[in-house]
């Protein structure tokens, strides 16, 4: 639209003076309109620069200075991410997240001049902030190690911390006076710092439990102390049993003996007289063996077909489950490419590739090379323009990208079949 307004204002400026009476006014309006459009364009460029400061992408964003260095490193190590997605710096500054959701997080290590790729869904920023709460600032490599272990270590501890928080908060808020509440107060006084942190700042408690080994050990000790005191007091045996169930329910990493109420009591087996063996007389005929019905050839064939069908269905299900991890991203890329309009009036195209399958990328590059070669040999139309040639090249590029998407999907499915 801006381009059309610019052309209109240029015509008004150049030709307005030739129109009788109103000519000078039209020409002056054309000049003013062009000046306004020029300033608007410059403002848009400035806004775009500010908005994308520090962005890393192969889609027309900054490739100069530090961004150029990082882009080249990313392109060399993870070309699929560099070419298809835009990454913006987060907090801390060396953590980069994709503008498009569902993509892995990147950590830039200035010392080694390298990128670390972190699995999608890992809360990298939260991990860094939690360590700051414990008074420790993580280097890029340290953050990478903790992020890689989050699913098996940090995430598990985070759930444990929330379970401890639920338990202690419930006990602290119980208004009814009882022996169990009295024991809790004793344990609270013995471990005042831990309980105080938990009740006043759950976020701090969670951070210290995950990243401070001494603090975590103290929390376990306070829980064991509470349980042992419940178990030693006859009036709080029910509280001990409830606490034991809580520990087992959340699989908390503390070792305590099961209370008497949780142990299984085996009932004595009643005494029975041994049965006397029946002696067969010589005159009695020996029992005939049971008849075994042999399956007919037709039954065998049907059984084999049924087994083959079940095995095939099981394999197809396994392949489908394997491919389901990749399908959403591939479908999203396909939808994006299918929505591209090759018409010059649409303002250009932007295609995406899956990029993970080498054979498909080789075919895609060869396809793009043919499209460019065809465009280079394309003659102008009757009006002397290359609009038709440009649209043909754009359509061919879209077809190349869609073919790569289908190729990658089939290739991944074949890998899933082989892995089963």
**Share of helix among residues?**
55-70%
Q: Can you count the helices?
A: 16
Tell me, what's the shape? flat
* Uncertain residue ranges: 1-8, 18-23, 43-51
**How would you state the average pLDDT, rounded?**
77
What share of residues are in beta strands?
under 5%
Number of strands: 4
Order of helices and strands: HHHHEEEEHHHHHHHHHHHH
Strand order of the biggest β-sheet? 1-2-3-4
At a glance:
The protein has 420 residues and is mostly helical. It has helices at residues 2-15, 23-51, 65-77, 79-84, 124-133, 140-148, 150-173, 179-190, 192-200, 202-211, 213-232, 237-249, 297-323, 327-338, 358-376, 387-419, and strands spanning 87-89, 95-98, 105-109, 114-118. A 4-stranded antiparallel β-sheet has the order 1-2-3-4, with helices on both faces.
Task: Describe this structure as you would to a colleague.
Mean pLDDT is 77; it is low at 1-8, 18-23 and 43-51. It is flat and about 100 Å long. It has four domains: 2-51; 65-148, no CATH class; 156-261, no CATH class; 327-419, no CATH class. It has helices at 2-15, 23-51, 65-77, 79-84, 124-133, 140-148, 150-173, 179-190, 192-200, 202-211, 213-232, 237-249, 297-323, 327-338, 358-376, 387-419; strands at 87-89, 95-98, 105-109, 114-118. The chain has 420 residues and is mainly alpha-helical. It has a four-stranded antiparallel beta sheet with strand order 1-2-3-4, with helices on both faces. The chain is 62% helix and 4% strand.
């Amino acid at each position: 639209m801006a381009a059309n307004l610019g052309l209109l204002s240029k015509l008004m400026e150049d030709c307005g003076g030739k129109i009788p009476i109103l000519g000078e006014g039209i020409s002056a309006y054309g000049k003013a309109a062009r000046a306004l459009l020029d300033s608007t364009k410059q403002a848009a460029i400035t806004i775009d620069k500010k908005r994308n400061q520090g962005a890393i992408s192969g889609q027309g964003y900054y490739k100069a200075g530090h961004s150029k260095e990082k882009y080249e490193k990313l392109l060399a190590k993870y070309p699929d991410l560099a070419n298809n997605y835009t990454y913006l710096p987060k907090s801390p500054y060396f953590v980069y997240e994709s503008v498009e959701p569902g993509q892995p997080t990147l950590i830039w290590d200035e010392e080694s001049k390298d990128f670390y790729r972190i699995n999608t869904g890992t809360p990298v920023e939260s991990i860094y902030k939690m360590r700051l709460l414990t008074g420790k600032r993580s280097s890029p490599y340290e953050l990478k190690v903790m992020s890689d272990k989050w699913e098996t270590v940090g995430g598990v501890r985070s759930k444990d911390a929330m379970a401890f928080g639920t338990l202690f908060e419930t006990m602290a808020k119980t208004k009814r006076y009882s022996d169990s509440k009295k024991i809790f107060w004793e344990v609270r006084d013995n471990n005042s710092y831990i309980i105080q942190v938990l009740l006043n700042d759950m976020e701090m408690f969670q951070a210290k439990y995950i990243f401070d080994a001494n603090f975590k050990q103290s929390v376990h000790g306070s829980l064991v102390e509470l349980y042992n005191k419940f178990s030693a007091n006859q009036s709080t045996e029910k509280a001990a049993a409830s606490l034991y169930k809580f520990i087992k329910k959340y699989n908390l990493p503390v070792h305590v003996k099961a209370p008497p109420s949780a142990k299984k009591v085996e009932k004595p087996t009643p005494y029975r007289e041994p049965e006397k063996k029946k002696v067969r007389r010589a005159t009695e005929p020996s029992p005939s063996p049971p008849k075994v019905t042999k399956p007919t050839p037709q039954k065998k064939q049907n059984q084999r077909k049924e087994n083959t069908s079940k095995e095939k269905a099981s394999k197809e299900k396994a392949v489908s489950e394997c491919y389901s991890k990749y399908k959403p991203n591939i479908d999203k890329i396909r939808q994006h490419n299918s929505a591209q309009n090759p018409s010059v009036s649409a303002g250009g195209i932007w295609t995406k590739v899956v990029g993970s399958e080498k054979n498909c990328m080789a075919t895609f590059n060869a396809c793009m090379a043919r499209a460019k070669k065809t465009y280079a040999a394309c003659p102008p139309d009757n009006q002397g323009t290359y609009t038709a040639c440009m649209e043909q090249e754009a359509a061919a590029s879209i077809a190349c990208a869609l073919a790569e998407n289908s190729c990658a999907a089939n290739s991944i499915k074949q890998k899933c079949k082989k892995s089963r």
